[in-house]
Amino acid sequence: MTQLITKSAKELNKLFLSKELSAKEITEAFFSHIEQVDPKIDALNLVTKDLAYGQAEELDRKIASGEKLGPLAGVPIVVKDILCVQGLPATCSSRILENFVAPYESTATAKLWDAGAICLAKSNLDEFAMGSSTENSAFKTTKNPWNLNMVPGGSSGGSAAAVASLEAPVSLGTDTGGSVKQPAGLCGVIGLKPTYGRVSRYGLIAFASSLDQIGPFSRTVYDLALVLQHISGYDPKDSTSINIDVPNYINLKPDAIKGKKIGLIKELMGDGIQKEVKSSVEDSAKVLKDLGAEVVEVSMPKIKYGVPVYYIIATAEASSNLARYDGVKYGFRAGGVEDILSLYTKTREEGFGQEVKRRIMLGTFVLSSGYYDAYYKKAQQVRRLVTQEFLNSFEHVDLLLSPISPTTAFAIGSKIEDPLAMYLADIATIPPNLAGLPAISLPCGFDSKGLPIGLQLIAPALGEELLLNVAHAFELKSKDMNKVPELAMA
Amino acid sequence: MITKEQVEHVAKLARLALTDEEKELYTKQLSKILDYIDQLNEVNTEGVEPMTQPIPKVNVMREDIVRKIFDKDSVLKNAPHEEYGFFRVPKIGE
Q1: ipTM of the modeled complex
Q2: CATH of B4-41, one of 1.10.20.60, 3.40.640.10, 1.10.287.950, 3.40.50.12640
Q3: Cβ contact, residue pair B80, A360, below 8 Å
């Protein structure tokens, strides 16, 4: 059993297609592991046994009768509980959606099931994806599988911790300001935030619509490419999805790194960056050099404005997107109200948690009469300047390199009282998101406490192929990738 | 900086019935966040076109065809209070 759960998605698919394992056996093995491990890490909001066994049965029937099978046949996957899977709760880890059952299927998950993937569970997150630690969940705090006193990062902390602890080989998260990349880094797994528009967001419950993007987690670059391959593409149901063909991501070419120029971002290697993180990223730069890349230092002085720009734009968009939660059509409704206005205000007061209310307040303020120009418009202008700085940099280099997070995983409870300190955890992940760029988080070492360190590689828009190829080259040289926490092997 | 009165005004706009403790807390926390955000004032943005989203702006048109996406029952199942196939709310107006 332990052997089986350590397998990659690619290997599981092979074992299923060669009839060495049935889909039912694969599913059983993962559920049995989840029962052992999840009470310790609390990564999952809901284990979806009925759905999983139904999908497994269908796969086993198809293989027995020689029917055509999809490219993810037999691959178990965990889905962040902010994506709609028809007939399952989609809670966003919020009281306000605790009883909401999705009446439709998100495009990304529909594509996974069509490709033969098996849905194991919906994973925990910071409420409405707002946070960097998964402590803002209304239901539970997910723990870091490498050290249970530490946060897994966020907001997709459940999806990251699930893959790190072998609850699934792959999972889906969403990334608005770093919600895939940062928890991937803190949990020692691989995470990708695709180009804005690469993956359809139909059925993704909206947080900040000019930033939100769905992205995969995995423990191997191939598995990441495999999931990305099958969730990407144009979708008429999402007017922001890009109508450009999806390249062949799974045909990985590690030699593509040769002769590429990689820029190490100076401003993300200075003050406030943990020493061990910095030296680990420097060591990784040497590895990339040994692999045939040229590494140069790049200065991006505007990058420091990423966090303040983000906390205006993302909160403004959130205040608008979350206006729909009014206790009328779905979700939680407060009791003991006399009129429609108190129905709205009491429902929202009781249904939303602290961080969500704080962001709705900030977003409403920056959009309010008299402050719109000073805050919202200003932030949109600086967003363009930050984006322009990326475009300028990519005239000189093929990829950009930085730490994924200024520190390794921090202790549960250590930043929850200080929102600004928490926001600064996303200092490296936010800027590429403002520009809509794809970026990958790769494990690149461990600190003295045994906590994972992650690096970030950023590509120009639609540069996922190069990111994956370079990541794969790095993976083949790395000692620290694909390591698994002890807790998962017990 | 933001005052408690401004917090109360914003809460009203956002349809949030904040408690007194929350008003105090948000006044303090939002002030600190806004002070941090104020560093944007050092950036010269004269003549810079505001950026609304990362991909080039295009209007996405589609044929105006009626399609059934949800069935009524599965939607109403999520309603906190449903009656006769409608959403029930407290009385609005006199």
Answers
A1: 0.96
A2: 1.10.20.60
A3: no
